[in-house]
Amino acid sequence: MKLALRRLRTAAVALGACTLGLSVMSVPAAEAYAVQPVAPQSQRAPESEQFQAEGVTTVGELRTVDGALSSASDGRTQVIRHPGASYVKVHFSALRLAHGDYVTVSSPDGRESYRYDRYLNRATGSDYTTDGQPGFWAMSVDGDTAVVTLHSSRASRGNVATIDRFWRGYDRTEIAQHNFSTQSVCSTDARRDVVCYQNSHPTEYARGRAVARLLISGGGMCTTWRVGNTNRMLTNKHCFSTQSAVSGSEMQFNYQCATCGGNNPGAGTKVSGATLYKVSSGGSGELDYALYSVNNFTSIQSFGTLYLATTATSTGTRMYIPGHGDGRPKRLSIFEDTQNGAACTVKNANYNSWNISYSCDTSGGNSGSPVLNSSHRVIALHHLGGCPSNQGAKAHLIYNQIASLIDNNG
C-alpha cells in the first residue's frame, strides 16, 4: 500500500562472527550439519544497494559475502545462514560447470530445492531472477538457511561456483522498524488467515488462491494476482514499473498457513517475472497498475484466476480483500471489526476520479491486492491506506486500458 516512507537505516558496517548472524562454510555434504558454521568477514551492502521504493514495504537487506565452491569432490556444500531471517536469496556471480554438473540451493529439510546447471534453462532446471548484472539470483529459500551443494564428478580443483551476495528477510519486528505506517487497520484488525474461511466462506477462500506474495528485487514486498485466462498478472505501478524490476522479482503462490492462526505456512510455488506489458500513466494516486507475465506459467495455473469488473461498482457493495499485508502469509479481510459482524463494504464508489474507498483492513504489503465484490469480480486494485478511506483504483477503468492485453471472459 502507498505509505509515506522514509526509512532510517544504519550505516553499512563490517561485523565479526560474534555479531554477524551470517554463517558460511564449505564442507562435504555429509558433514554439513555436524560442524558449527564459521562466519567470515562480511558486511551489509552499501545503502545505495539496499531496497528503497516509496510505498513498498521493505522486508530484507542485502549482504555481501565471499563464498566459493570447489570441484575437488562431489557433494561440496556451503551453508549460508542468518539466524532469524525469514528468507535467504543467494546470488551467483559466476557458475563454471561442466556438462552434467549442477548446483542445488535448498532449505536444510529439503522442502525447497532449486537446481542450476551451466545452461540455466528454466524448462529443464529451476527458475531464477536477474538484475542486469553478471550472474543470477537463485529463487529465495524460506527460513534462515540456504544450503548450496555442488554435484560434480570432476576431479580437478578450482572454484566452479562463486557466491558474492545474498538477501536475508527481516523478521516481523524488523519489518515494523524499517517501515513507517499509515493507519490502515481501521479500529480492530479483523483479518484472519485464509484457511480460517475455508469452510465458512469457501468461494472467497478459493478465489484467494489466485493471489500471490510479490518479492521485489530481493528486498521489497507487495501483493499480486493472476488476471484473466492467459499468462497475465496485476500489481501496482508503485510496486514496480520497469522490465528490470519484473525480471528481478518473485511471485509466491499458496503462501498461506495450513491451520487457522497456526503461523505455519508452506513454501508454496515460486515463479519469476517475465514480461512487463503495460503500466498506468499518472501518479500513484491514480490507476496505479502494472500488467506483466511470469515464467513457468503452467506451475501456477492450478491456483486459478480472477476477472475484472467492466462496469463501475456502487456505494454499499459488499467486498473483501485477500492479500499479503506486512509480507505475512495470506489473510482475508471480510469483516470490518469483528468476525461475523459488519461486512466490509464500499464506503464511496466515487471517492475521486480514479478511486473507491473503504475501511476494510489493510497494511503495508497489501499494495496490489484485488478488491472483490460478492459476485467475486475485482472491483478495485488496492493501493492507498489511511482510515477511514483506504482506497483502490477502479477496476473498470483499468479494464478499459488493458482489455486488448487480457482474456477477461470468465
Automatic annotation (TrEMBL):
What's the domain of life for this entry?
Bacteria
The reply to whether Signal figures as a keyword in the UniProt entry is yes
Swiss-Prot/TrEMBL keywords: Signal
Query: Which InterPro entries does the protein's record reference?
Result: Peptidase_S1_PA, Peptidase_S1_PA_chymotrypsin
Question: Which residue windows are transmembrane per the record?
Answer: none
Signal as UniProt keyword: yes
Q: Which residues form the signal peptide?
A: 1-29
Task: Please name one Pfam family that this protein belongs to.
Answer: Trypsin_2
Quote the PANTHER family the UniProt record gives: LYSYL ENDOPEPTIDASE
Protein name, entry field? Trypsin-like peptidase domain-containing protein
Question: What is the scientific name of the source organism?
Answer: Micromonospora echinofusca
Q: What is the lineage of its organism?
A: Bacteria, Bacillati, Actinomycetota, Actinomycetes, Micromonosporales
